[in-house]
Amino acid sequence: MAELVYAAGIPHAPTLVGLFARAPAEVQKVVRDSCDALVQELEAARPDVLIVFANDHLTNSRISAYPDFLIGMAAEHSGPHEWFKPWIGCRDYTAKGDTAVAEALFRGMTRRGIRMNAERKNLNFDDNISVPTVLMDLDKRPVRVVPVLQNTTVPPYPDQRRCYAVGQALADLIRDDLPAGLRVGLIGSGGLSHEPGGSRYYFIDEEFDRWFLDLCCSGDHRRLLDELTIDRMEAAGSGGTSELLAWVVVMGAIGERPGRSFGYAIHKEFRCGIGAVSWSVNGHAAGRG
Amino acid sequence: MGLFDNFDPTLAAHDLVQDLKWDPELRQQFEKDEGSVLDRYALRPAERQAIEQRNFRKLYDLGFHPYLGGQLARLIYGNDVDGAIRAVNNLVASLNSKS
Q1: Most buried one in A105, A165, A168, A208, CB count within 10 A?
Q2: What pLDDT shows up at residue A180?
Q3: How far is the C-alpha of B69 from the C-alpha of A24, rounded, in Å?
Q4: pLDDT category of residue B1 using cuts at 50, 70 and 90
């Protein structure tokens, strides 16, 4: 039985890196406070491996063959992909991978009736993995990373109930398939409200974002699943807000438990609402609230 | 109307944007001689015209995926931090136009 020791949901807007220095001080403070808290908790939790669910921004697959979940099985994960680098404005990185855990994930999800795809080569990473990696210096820490790139924008894609069920299966897998003593962390990377490529590119739905963060902290997953519908996320920013489905996978894995948020920032130039949540799971077996 | 109401996964322009992201040489060719790159794809006449005219409104009406719309705008208007701002502003202006 592996142990779930860390769980968090974080945004990955590229502007958090590239436009950070131009943001107002109070916005920078929320970003810094959130990152510092998440890093502090990460250091205390000491995970051996982090499984990071993050949407793919159509960076790895053609629309004609688009996987709902794509596991990165490489021994190392380097990024960002060259085309995304100037846009994000972030440094290069190479994070340690964990092929054995990635294979166990692929095998275990398949046996649990959940279709995932997997790739042994280095995936193309855009802001999805790159931003949390550089903000939290994941590549400089003694932690291995298993990225799972998720479809949250090419219709039809798995809705909140399916993503939650994926998280529940992940909890079973961590508990039953991964080696005893392995310390596992989970990150959901994406959101908050934004509409990339849409006519409301600069729109940020503050009311939705605050509601969502409160809901994550409440631990009320019945409400989460009833109310965080694709329609509601689309209304809060079409094609982008649904990235929060990566957080739903994490919440499905940890079960109902309260979370902690570190503030909320709204800054038009970021083109995305900013806020993060962590859930206290240290010492609990996966999925047992 | 929602951004995805007309989504048409069969548009060849989707593959064009993917290839431009993945292939630096093709990107150079696109900057130098856009028409010769467009010739390689089975674009419908209206699809090609929308790209040539930078008419994102028309492209979306045909069923183009908006995320790739944002990326196409960066391929055209600039892909660094400031280029992305130009791209967003041009994209939004086109989407809000009536034509």
Answers
A1: A105
A2: 96
A3: 29
A4: low
Cα A69 from Cα A165, distance rounded (Å): 13
Q: Report, as an integer, the average pLDDT of A4-33.
A: 88
d(C-alpha A52, C-alpha A71), whole Å = 10
pLDDT digits (tens, 9 = 90+) for B10-30: 999 999 999 999 999 999 999
| B3/A238 CB distance under 8 A | yes
CA distance B65 to chain A (A): 8
Task: Round to whole Å and give the CA distance between A202 and A217.
Answer: 27
Q: Which residues of B touch A269 (CB under 8 A)?
A: 85
**Is the pLDDT confidence value at A288 over 70?**
no
Q: Are B3 and A198 within 8 A, CB to CB?
A: yes
Give the one of A59, A63, A271 whose C-beta lies nearest to B65's C-beta: A63
Is residue B60 within 8 A of residue B6, CB to CB? The reply is yes
Contact A87 B79 (CB under 8 A): yes
Indicate the CATH number of A3-279 among 3.30.1510.10, 3.40.220.10, 2.40.50.100, 3.40.830.10.
3.40.830.10
